[in-house]
Design goal:
heterodimer, A: alpha+beta, Glutamine Phosphoribosylpyrophosphate, subunit 1, domain 1, 4-stranded antiparallel β-sheet, 31% strand, B: alpha/beta
């Protein structure tokens, strides 16, 4: 019930265009998430997260997304399921410096996972199920797991349907649940890696015609590192 | 009951006046109390997605007692068979329960009368009870067990001991319990070796030493002051806490106990799971008392149980309250007349205490015993257990769970204010949890 777009640049020459490229991608998943939107841009000053309630295209303009530069960015458009439509409940969730998580789907046992994390001292900002996944990943990274391990643990611990795009300052990772019915399309060229919820969000990317386009398998962690 | 002295109450007074004693019967509470029937599951729709029954996994594996035991109990389904004694039940009935449990990959439990060799050999996983009576309790059988369950109380009679009337104290039962034949027996209500949680700690260590820290130690309580009792059981070192609600059955006890002591299973499970969560220990919770269906199992698990235990349901599957038994020839033999002699009808019999069980289950009478064919009985109980497991996974999948243990309180709502308050889930159609949200 959401749209995801993400772009991980391998070719530094594209970095000035990052915001413009992501902005174009985000507009293509506008209908998937009319309630709110947010972006996380990894630029020269580190990760900048902007979120808002309302139409994603108008929000992207408000954020000045098209003018942002950097080496990696994620965007999310939200159609709320069970939790409130607020700025705080919008994605990306960034509970740890450099970490961004965006989610399409819904978890089926997040209340139990939330209680377990709270028992270990983790504090939540919202009643959102995606925040539970974000806090879980952050908690595992804090405990010393790498991102690949943390996402494999997500598959072990969480029930429900999910496509997750999770990024750190230098990593870009996608994982889906065991049924893998929420969309996730990956495309890779020598210049970039992109992940989108709908194919049409890829076609405007430079050199897309030569890209390798594929879907991640069930519970397969696809991870790129700078 | 619609007034103070309805015909049933008049009859009870007349019975006491005639006999000069209290009434005794079997099975569990017969009064209406808030129960799992008062809860509903919020299965998936648009905001969440159900899992497909045919191809998407829903695990039922249940691990009990890994906290301290080098060999925890691993069950294929979260449904176990509760302690019922040889004495209360015939040897064939115990054998059939053991075979059924083994066939579906779960455990059965001895009872207040010791371990029979038949039961040990037919039960792949056997829980050996350590009771106040010490009937048949010995280190040799302890070391043959797969878990030991210290029984502090039982839902049907918390604070009271068991009863076995003289007609069921046959030669073999008498020998196993070192009792005189044919004499009414009342079990102790309090353990002679220890009183209180401080001494229970020592008893648990003794049982661990005797079993080389190999098998889990369960502590079973009748549901009364559940929060305190569960916390004390954990503090004393229990690996698994078994909480038996007031609907739990018995083979014989005073009806005043059955109907007027303890709290409903619905209230007990939430108190127990909250207590375990508060302590934060790796301790499993088994809940019993009136569990009949997969819906009951799913709701108990959602409220925090790791497994349930069934007694009466398993006996009914075995043939209890059936109007006929199957003879060796395969012929169905109607025994309605035998029920009538007990002044009851099939389907409404709780006369386990008499030993005159028309279908040969709750008896030590050699003639009646032959009415239960253990092969047929085992098959029926196994069918019942399989049905419960299938119903449980069906409901769990509908809630989007790949493991029945991932059902959670948020999957439930209550039909009544009472059930909402006890289970601490919202009244259906509202966000109101009485006592929690106002």
């Amino acid at each position: 019930m959401c749209g995801i777009v993400g772009l991980h640049l391998k070719d530094p020459a594209l970095e000035p265009q990052l915001g413009a490229l992501l902005s174009g991608m985000l507009a293509q998943v506008r209908e998937r998430g009319p309630d709110s939107a947010g972006v996380g841009v990894y630029g020269p000053g580190g990760l900048a997260v902007r979120k808002g309630v309302g139409d994603p295209v108008a929000l992207a303009e408000e954020f000045g997304l098209a003018g942002m530069r950097g080496h990696q960015a994620v965007g999310h458009t939200r159609m709320a399921t069970e939790s409130a439509i607020t700025v705080e409940g919008s994605h990306p969730f960034s509970p740890r410096p450099g970490l961004c998580l965006v989610h399409n789907g819904s978890f089926a046992n997040h209340a139990t996972v939330r209680r377990a994390l709270e028992a270990e001292g983790v504090v939540f900002d919202t009643d959102n199920d995606s925040e539970v996944a974000a806090r879980f990943v952050a908690h595992r990274l804090d405990r010393g797991d790498d991102l690949d391990k943390a996402l494999r643990l997500v598959c072990d611990v969480f029930d429900g349907f999910y496509t997750l795009l999770v990024t750190t300052d230098d990593e870009f990772a996608v994982v889906r649940d065991a049924v893998a019915c929420k969309p996730a399309i990956l495309a890779e060229t020598p210049a970039w890696v992109a992940m989108v919820s709908e194919y049409r969000a890829l076609v405007g990317l430079p050199g897309f015609a030569a890209a390798r386009v594929f879907e991640p398998g069930p519970e397969e962690v696809c991870l790129w590192k700078r | 009951m619609n007034h103070t002295f309805p015909p049933s109450v008049i009859a009870e007074i007349q019975e006491r006046a005639a006999l000069g004693r209290y009434a005794i019967r079997g099975l569990g509470a017969r009064r209406a109390v808030p129960s799992f029937d008062d809860l509903l599951l919020l299965t998936a729709s648009a905001s969440r997605y159900p899992l497909e029954g045919y191809r998407e996994r829903c695990s039922t594996t249940t691990v009990l007692g890994a906290r301290n035991a080098s060999q925890p109990v691993v069950l294929d389904i979260p449904i176990t068979i509760a302690g019922m004694s040889f004495g209360a039940l015939s040897a064939a009935a115990k054998d059939a329960l053991g075979r059924a449990a083994s066939e579906v990959g779960t455990s059965t439990t001895t009872g207040d009368g010791g371990m029979t060799p038949e039961e040990r050999s037919s039960s792949k996983t056997l829980v050996y009870q350590c009771l106040p009576s010490r009937y048949g309790f010995n280190p040799d059988d302890l070391r043959k067990a797969d878990a030991v369950e210290i029984v502090l109380g039982q839902g049907a009679k918390p604070g009271g001991g068991g009863m076995l009337l003289g007609q069921k104290v046959g030669p073999r039962v008498a020998a196993m319990r070192t009792l005189p034949e044919g004499i009414d027996q009342r079990s102790a209500s309090r353990h002679p070796d220890w009183t209180g949680p401080d001494d229970l700690t020592i008893k648990i260590l003794e049982l661990r030493e005797a079993t080389d820290w190999r098998i889990p130690v369960y502590v079973k309580v009748g549901a009364t002051r559940v929060e305190h009792d569960v916390k004390l059981a954990i503090a004393a070192g229990a690996d698994v806490v078994v909480v038996d609600g007031m609907q739990g059955g018995t083979a014989a006890t005073q009806s005043a106990f059955i109907e007027h002591t303890g709290i409903p299973t619905l209230a007990a499970v939430r108190l127990a799971s909250d207590a375990i969560a508060e302590v934060g220990a790796d301790v499993q919770l088994i809940v019993s008392g009136g569990v009949r269906s997969g819906a009951d199992v799913a709701k108990a698990l959602a409220l925090g149980a790791d497994a349930v235990s069934i007694g009466v349901g398993a006996l009914v599957a075995l043939g209890c309250n059936d109007s006929a038994y199957t003879a060796e020839s395969g012929e169905r033999v109607d025994v309605t007349g035998d029920y009538r002699k007990l002044k009851v009808l099939p389907g409404d019999c709780a006369h386990c205490h008499t030993g005159a069980c028309p279908v040969g289950i709750a008896t030590q009478d050699p003639v009646l015993e032959r009415r239960l064919d253990p092969d047929t009985g085992a098959e029926r109980v196994a069918n019942y257990l399989r049905s419960l497991a299938m119903e449980t996974t069906m409901l769990a999948r509908a809630c989007g769970k790949s493991d029945v243990h991932r059902l959670e309180p948020e999957d439930l709502v209550a039909l009544t204010v009472e059930a909402a308050a006890m289970a601490r889930v919202p009244l259906a159609g509202t966000s109101w949890i009485p006592g929690v949200t106002g």
